[in-house]
Specification:
There is one protein chain. By secondary structure, the chain is of the alpha/beta class. It is built from 16 helices and 16 strands. Bound molecules: zinc ion.
Length: 462
């Protein structure tokens, strides 16, 4: 100690520690003392790393000591946790939180429960409160960007903004009259208004969401494609999700759903396809050529026994693959941490190859892969200078995280959503010490239980 002090004195005397060394640049948030998984191109991992945030962007990422260069209004000690990019949910219907755990595993659930319930219950209020609750769950689980498809999508936008998440939100277009559009395909006009309102929003990317190929038609899918180019907004769609859908296109056109969509010219770099379970090698080639984003919903797909999407093959062939949960009536939970373990383990089982999907690949899909699927990789998905400040800290002190030899393994095989401690979106702290700061979680619980009583009454009549 004495020796250290004397060196320090010597440095001052010789002017090595001059005035400049003490001067500090301004920052808003500095995170120290954690393992930083940057998820950049080289997949750099920084032990005992530092992340510096200013305004809504990442200013610098580096090793211990970097924090001395800056003076921040908020300093966060990660306490040896994992500092990672915010996770991205590339496909959900958050408002369906109100129906979670209802009639799971009833064979004709979709026609017996879901459609009649939606007919009777979908309203701006239901959509808002359901999306709000879904956003509460996602925020606390470290999801910083949510991709959603539903009705009254402007209400979803209000909810997502209220909680402070980033959203890619698609207004549903479908060939039947629905709650927010009395005419078939009325969602197109609704979407246009929604897009015009939110086009320049800091957190919301508005989009078209044609429900699926077979619940739309060629003419309207082409209209949507044309409009998406004019507005430069994404198109979100369920594609090749069921065997029935595949059989329909086989019989009608002797094509797969992907071949059909390509034949009518609607696949492009604005398109994000969810599920893609029933795809062949030719479909994968088409999707790659058209630069389509892929939302892989493993848990929802296996729960409904639909099948395993060849998403790993797509990822390994260089397609843009992210993870999604699907709606809480399909996948039940909206967090991405819970997806990663299933994705890793089931692809291994499917390929009978233990090395097929190492944890780093699952974390990649959950972060930068999701960003690529949404064509937003220039803005989000990794911790790098200049990117938007969507940052998550996962604590490593809970019993299930101890001991920790490998951060990727711990995240994929050991962690769960309740290990998420801090969540920052667009430079703003929305979860701190596991507490949501933007909304009263108790109130959201009450909203859902009030809805539950209404749902039970209606479900009894079905
Ligand atoms: Zn879906």
């Amino acid at each position: 100690m004495k020796k250290l002090l004397s060196i320090f004195t010597l440095l001052i005397l010789t002017g090595t520690l001059n005035k400049e060394s003490f001067s500090s640049e301004k920052a808003d948030i500095i995170i120290t003392n954690g393992t930083v998984l940057t998820m950049d191109n080289e997949k750099n991992v920084i032990e005992n790393g530092v992340v510096v945030i200013k305004d809504n962007k990442i200013l610098e990422v580096g090793q211990k000591g970097l924090e001395k260069k800056y003076k921040a209004t908020k300093n966060i000690d990660a306490n040896e946790g994992i500092i990672m990019p915010g996770m991205i949910n590339t496909h959900t219907h958050a408002s369906m939180s109100v129906f979670r755990s209802l009639a799971d595993d009833v064979p004709d659930r979709l026609t017996r429960y879901l459609f009649p319930l939606e007919n009777k219950m979908v309203s701006p209020e239901m959509v808002y409160l359901g999306a709000l609750h879904g956003s509460v769950e996602m925020a606390k689980a470290g999801v910083t960007t949510v991709t959603d498809m539903y009705y009254f999508e402007d209400e979803v936008a209000k909810a997502v903004k209220k909680i402070g998440l980033r959203g890619v939100l698609g207004e549903t277009v479908i060939k039947f009259p629905v709650a927010d559009a009395k005419e078939p395909f009325g969602g197109i006009d609704y979407a246009k208004k929604f897009i015009e309102t939110y086009k320049n929003d800091e957190l919301i990317t508005p989009a078209f969401a044609p429900h699926a190929p077979h619940t739309n038609d060629t003419e309207h899918l082409q209209i949507i494609n044309k409009l998406s180019k004019e507005y430069n907004v994404p198109v979100l769609m369920h594609v090749a999700e069921t065997e029935k859908e595949s059989e329909f296109y086989k019989e009608k056109y002797n094509m797969s759903p992907v071949e059909y969509l390509d034949s009518i010219g609607v696949l492009d770099q604005r398109f994000v396809a969810a599920h893609l379970i029933f795809v062949n090698d030719n479909d994968i080639e088409i999707l790659k050529k058209r630069d389509v984003g892929v939302a892989h919903n493993m848990v929802a797909n296996i729960k409904s026994a639909k099948g395993i999407s060849p998403a790993l093959k797509m990822h390994d062939q260089g397609l843009r693959v992210g993870l999604g949960t699907d709606g809480p009536m399909s996948g039940n939970t909206l967090d991405i941490i819970g997806q990663m373990g299933y994705v890793a383990k089931l692809h291994k089982l499917d390929t009978k190859d233990r090395s097929a999907l190492p944890p780093i690949k699952a974390v990649e899909m959950a972060t930068i892969g999701g960003a690529k699927a949404l064509h937003m990789e220039d803005k989000i998905g990794s911790l790098e200078t200049g990117k938007l400040a969507d940052v998550v800290i996962v604590e490593t002190q809970s019993a299930n995280m101890v001991p920790l030899y490998d951060a990727y393994s711990a995240l994929v095989y050991s962690a769960n959503a309740s290990n998420v401690e801090t969540v920052i979106v667009n430079g703003k702290i929305i979860v701190e010490n596991k507490v949501l700061k933007t909304y009263d979680e108790k109130l959201s619980r009450k909203n859902m239980n009030d809805f539950k009583n209404k749902v039970i009454k209606i479900a009894e009549t079905l």
